[in-house]
Design goal:
25% strand, Transporter substrate-binding domain-containing protein, D-Maltodextrin-Binding Protein, domain 2, Solute-binding_3/MltF_N, signal, globular
């Protein structure tokens, strides 16, 4: 009788263990903070993407844990199933080979061009108007179809935003950087380069971000469906608009 009881407890513990594991999702984040979407404080992770993802996770009965890597490693781990999901992902045909997206987006994001303050150039919205300068962006980022397919540009890549700021702010170089303006302004202040870069108008790109789940998970489609269903309700809620307003993001 005692043996049966021990065996029963072992089996129950095993089931519970599997359930906890299934209900916990590993989120991949870049190793560099990315305000206003995600950044780390003494209280943990904050930002619009984090708050939306946490709200949806609670609604679907999941717990999120966050793992940080260089961005290209995040994408590699997403493909390999080392991380289960990402919470801020532009939708492209190439990326869709590795992930299942939610049916609808949850956050908009803009990409802007910026230059060292000494470089006196204007941008008319067409990349051809500034094509004589080399362009620098973060490896693995998507900056819109126009930039993606601009084969006439001389493009270079760096690992993250701090490296990008240091590169563009160099007073001896004439080049153009591209990225998320709030994140770049954050690092310019943090690294002491505020006033040494300026942003060009208009913005190069504005696009929709989705949550996305690794195809390496057998239940990726079910997860995407569950989060999609909750997202429909969530985007009609007062809470969603409070998050957008809190972080200065347009609906």
């Amino acid at each position: 009788m005692l043996v049966r009881l021990i065996l029963f407890c072992f089996l129950v513990a095993g089931v519970c263990s599997v359930r906890v594991q299934a209900d916990t999702l590993v989120v991949g984040l870049a190793d560099a903070d990315y305000p206003p979407f995600y950044y780390e404080t003494d209280q943990g992770f904050e930002g619009a993407a984090v708050e939306v993802a946490e709200d949806l996770a609670r609604a679907t009965g999941h717990e999120l844990i966050y793992k940080r890597y260089p961005w290209r490693r995040v994408q590699h781990n997403l493909n390999a199933g080392v991380v289960d999901m990402v919470i801020l992902y532009f939708r492209t045909a190439e990326r869709e080979q590795d992930v299942i997206y939610t049916d609808s987006p949850h956050l908009k994001e803009r990409s802007s061009l910026f230059v060292p303050v000494h470089l006196d150039i204007q941008f008319n919205g067409e990349l051809g108007s500034v094509s004589q300068y080399p362009f620098y962006g973060v490896r693995g980022y998507f900056y819109g179809d126009a930039y993606q397919h601009a084969a006439f540009l001389n493009k270079f890549e760096v690992s993250n935003e701090p490296e990008l700021i240091r590169k563009v702010a160099n007073p001896r170089l004439n080049l153009i950087g591209i990225g998320n303006k709030p994140a770049l302004e954050f690092y310019a202040r943090k690294l002491g380069f505020e006033g040494q870069i300026r942003f060009l108008a208009p913005d190069l790109y504005e696009g929709d971000n989705y949550l996305a789940f690794s195809r390496a998970r057998k239940d990726a489609r079910q997860l995407a469906r569950a989060f999609s269903e909750q997202l429909i309700v969530y985007k009609k809620s007062k809470r969603y608009y409070q998050v957008l307003e809190k972080y200065g993001i347009r609906p």
